[in-house]
Design brief:
Length: 87
């Protein structure tokens, strides 16, 4: 009888994980939400960086409206690939 009880105790101790730090569903949800917001903020930052920036419009002598890029050294991808105007 003592042997059976000893086997049951040993079996119960080996099958139950005692030192595992399992995350609760609430902790896991908060971690996923934080990671999602971080990824969203990074995507928005990249989108804003790629929007072209322009100076204020200026009228020249002929009445033409000229709008210059703030950073003229940056060429759009289409010009780099050799594609003409897409108007």
């Amino acid at each position: 009888m003592k042997f059976i009880i000893l086997c049951l105790v040993v079996l119960s101790l080996t099958t139950y994980p005692t030192g595992v730090d399992a995350q609760t569903p609430k902790d896991k949800a908060q971690e996923l939400a934080h990671e999602g917001i971080k990824n969203l903020m990074q995507a928005l930052r990249l989108m804003i960086e790629h929007i072209p920036q322009y100076e204020l419009p200026v009228l020249n002598k002929n009445g033409d409206i000229i709008i210059k890029r703030k950073y003229p050294h940056e060429m759009p991808d289409k010009k780099k690939r050799g594609i003409g105007n897409d108007i």
